[in-house]
From TrEMBL:
<dbReference type="InterPro" id="IPR032416">
    <property type="entry name" value="Peptidase_M24_C"/>
</dbReference>
<dbReference type="InterPro" id="IPR033740">
    <property type="entry name" value="Pept_M24B"/>
</dbReference>
<dbReference type="InterPro" id="IPR000994">
    <property type="entry name" value="Pept_M24"/>
</dbReference>
<dbReference type="InterPro" id="IPR050422">
    <property type="entry name" value="X-Pro_aminopeptidase_P"/>
</dbReference>
<comment type="similarity">
    <text>Belongs to the peptidase M24B family.</text>
</comment>
<dbReference type="Pfam" id="PF01321">
    <property type="entry name" value="Creatinase_N"/>
</dbReference>
<feature type="domain" description="Peptidase M24 C-terminal">
    <location>
        <begin position="543"/>
        <end position="603"/>
    </location>
</feature>
<feature type="domain" description="Creatinase N-terminal">
    <location>
        <begin position="13"/>
        <end position="144"/>
    </location>
</feature>
<dbReference type="Pfam" id="PF00557">
    <property type="entry name" value="Peptidase_M24"/>
</dbReference>
<keyword id="KW-0479">Metal-binding</keyword>
<protein>
    <submittedName>
        <fullName>Xaa-Pro aminopeptidase</fullName>
    </submittedName>
</protein>
<dbReference type="Pfam" id="PF16188">
    <property type="entry name" value="Peptidase_M24_C"/>
</dbReference>
<dbReference type="Pfam" id="PF16189">
    <property type="entry name" value="Creatinase_N_2"/>
</dbReference>
<keyword id="KW-0031">Aminopeptidase</keyword>
<dbReference type="InterPro" id="IPR000587">
    <property type="entry name" value="Creatinase_N"/>
</dbReference>
<dbReference type="GO" id="GO:0070006">
    <property type="term" value="F:metalloaminopeptidase activity"/>
</dbReference>
<feature type="domain" description="Peptidase M24">
    <location>
        <begin position="316"/>
        <end position="532"/>
    </location>
</feature>
């Protein structure tokens, strides 16, 4: 989503907020990139940090005090935040090295009151910050209305776009069946109701989709699901069409979204399940004030949503075949166009979007395309705009990470290509990344294995050279839903709590995306999506799983050092390219098909190729 371009300067915006805080008797305020659903990506109306500071990333927080302010971002945005946020107005603070609580602890004074919007933060975050401020004799105060909204004069309203039915022919399971499963989950735990706030969970449970958040097909709504399999859906009335009303049926009561808080107050005496990782602090406060018994449970839609049924998997495979044609045509175009000069990152991203649009099936991109040339490729989550746009020049690498939203599936793919002749270093690093990609793609593992136990497979060849990459190796992906979906992931253990991670289950979709990044020079990433599938192994003594690769597009052969591949790795690459040609060629014209055949030709191998 593009950063809002306000008509007043960042300094004036900050001054207006401070004046509003003073009028309310507050000394400070916390401004996150968040919405009432703790979404990863938020609608334009919720881009409060972007409006206030100018920061256009997807994760971050600002803290404002009377004399000081700070922006908090992780390592993905170290460069971007300095380009977009005025350092004379805000301190730059890196997380997790530091935190909002630590910065406030060092800068707040005794007796000061720091405000926060309880509809934008989790309950555990609020309680931890309140405790930290108490240690400084300061106070965390929940505001009734957001002070940023009071000074953001041209704030856009929440989207009023209508909700759409996601047909059972695409979903593979009727919404009534999903509600029945959740009702059984409630009954077995002696619970009356669960509060559902995650937008993708609501979309999945009710088999509906929307367009309220850029790149994620969800609609702004809350829901209460009950042990009798009925539900209450809280959504703006103008978003409900006759078709959606008929689809939801009599067992789903429809209310205005603004009625949600009052409905929580009506749950007195009920035992209510709430997910502390997905429900904001205001929900816990309202339920506790109403006299409800609140039990912490993970959103019951999270795991079944992650384990795709065969209909969802078949649709996702079809979407990837369609998407692969667009990506392959783009790679051909890049090979022909980039060496001529005059192409930049924005132009390349626009051309890739054009190829996807030509399918006639694209609903949206699944995220902002990472179109990164040369040193910009060394920023794993780089986002090109008019100020950072870089020419794609000979002698460099170009990294493009992109995806599409189709009604039958969500795609996410990264390819790295050489513009001109790559250096020996580029080829070595690319081949090491490829070896790690292959090691993960071909892994077999016992049922119950967690992603953190597989992560080393993708890093081992880079580690052998004393290098690594600073992001996870794989994230979950939805079925015409969020491109980043939990609970599954492939990454280094977090905080020594690998045992709390979700085991991988057959039917889950994940990315396989090792990389390498040389600061100021280039970046490399190879990403395909994979499905967890059962493996039949002769003599196996326990149930085994593996991965099926479902992304199809050529991998740059001129960046591969064949001598570094083992015979088995070279065989995998040749088999993968043969599958790419088989999947994509029938949908291509003669010229594109000829290029694809050359791009997918077997690797030329040295007579005695040995693994590095």
């Amino acid at each position: 989503m593009s950063t809002p371009r306000p008509s007043v300067s960042p300094a004036e915006r900050l001054a207006r907020l401070r004046a509003e805080l003073q009028a309310r008797g507050l000394d400070g305020f916390i401004v996150p990139i968040s919405d009432e659903h703790l979404s990863e990506y938020v609608g334009g109306y919720a881009q409060r940090m972007a409006w206030l500071t100018g920061f256009g990333g997807s994760a971050g927080t600002a803290a404002v005090l009377p004399e000081k302010a700070a922006v908090f971002v992780d390592g993905r945005y170290t460069v971007q935040v300095r380009a977009q946020v005025d350092g004379s107005l805000y301190d730059y603070v890196g997380v997790p090295q530091s935190s909002v609580a630590e910065w406030l602890g060092a800068n707040v004074s005794a007796g000061q009151k720091v405000g926060y919007d309880p509809w934008l933060h989790s309950i555990d975050w609020a309680r931890a910050l309140a405790k930290a401020l108490r240690a400084r004799d300061a106070e965390l105060v929940a505001v009734e209305s957001n002070p940023v909204d009071a000074v953001w004069i041209d704030q856009p309203p929440p989207s009023g776009a209508p909700i759409m039915v996601h047909d059972t022919a695409l979903a593979g399971q009727a919404a009534a069946e999903k509600r029945s499963v959740i009702a059984d989950w409630l009954k077995t735990r002696g619970l009356d109701t669960t509060v559902m706030t995650a937008l993708d969970s609501i979309a999945w449970t009710f088999n509906i989709r929307g367009s309220d958040v850029t790149h994620t097909p969800v609609g702004l709504a809350f829901a209460l699901l009950n042990a009798d399999a009925t539900a209450d859906l809280f959504i703006a009335p103008e978003k409900i069409t006759d078709a959606v009303r008929a689809h939801l049926g009599n067992s789903v009561r429809i209310h205005d979204r603004d009625a949600f808080e009052a409905a929580l107050a009506g749950l007195s005496g009920k035992k209510v399940a709430v997910d502390p990782d997905r429900a904001v602090a205001a929900i816990f406060t309202a339920l506790e004030a109403a006299g409800a018994t609140v039990e912490r449970h993970r959103d019951p839609a999270v795991l079944p949503k992650a384990i795709k049924n065969e209909t969802e998997l078949d649709g996702t495979r079809a979407a990837h075949a369609r998407d692969g044609v667009a990506v392959a045509r783009f790679l051909k175009w890049m090979e022909e166009t980039a060496p001529q000069g005059g192409l930049d990152e924005l132009g390349a991203a626009a051309k890739l979007r054009e190829f996807r649009d030509q399918s006639g099936a694209l609903v949206d991109l699944s995220f902002d395309t990472i179109s990164a040339a040369g040193p910009n490729g060394a920023l794993p989550h780089y986002k090109v705009d008019e100020t950072t746009n870089r020419a794609i020049e000979a002698g460099t690498l170009y990294l493009v990470d992109s995806g599409g939203q189709y009604t039958d599936g969500t795609t996410d793919i990264t390819r790295t290509i050489a513009i001109g002749t790559p250096t020996a270093e580029m080829r070595r690093r690319f081949t090491q990344v490829l070896k790690g990609h292959i090691a993960l793609a071909t892994a077999r593992f016992p049922k119950g294995t967690r992603g953190s136990q597989l992560d080393i497979l993708a890093r081992q060849y880079l580690w052998a050279d004393g290098v690594d990459y600073a992001h996870g190796t794989g994230h979950g992906v939805g079925a015409y839903l969020a491109v980043h979906e939990g609970p599954q992931r492939i990454a280094k253990p977090s905080g020594g709590q690998a045992g709390t991670e979700e085991p991988l289950h057959a039917g889950m979709i994940l990315s396989n995306e090792p990389g390498y990044y040389k600061a100021g020079a280039f970046g490399i990433r190879i990403e395909n999506l994979v499905v967890v599938v059962s493996q039949s192994i002769a003599g196996a003594e326990e149930e085994m799983l593996g991965f099926e690769t479902i992304t199809f597009a050529p991998i740059a052969r001129n960046l591969i050092e064949p001598d570094l591949l083992s015979p088995a790795e070279a065989d995998w690459l040749d088999a993968y390219h043969a599958a790419v040609f088989e999947k994509l060629a029938p949908a291509m014209d003669e010229t594109d098909r000829a290029w694809l055949e050359a791009a997918c030709a077997p690797l030329e191998r040295a007579p005695t190729a040995l693994a590095a």
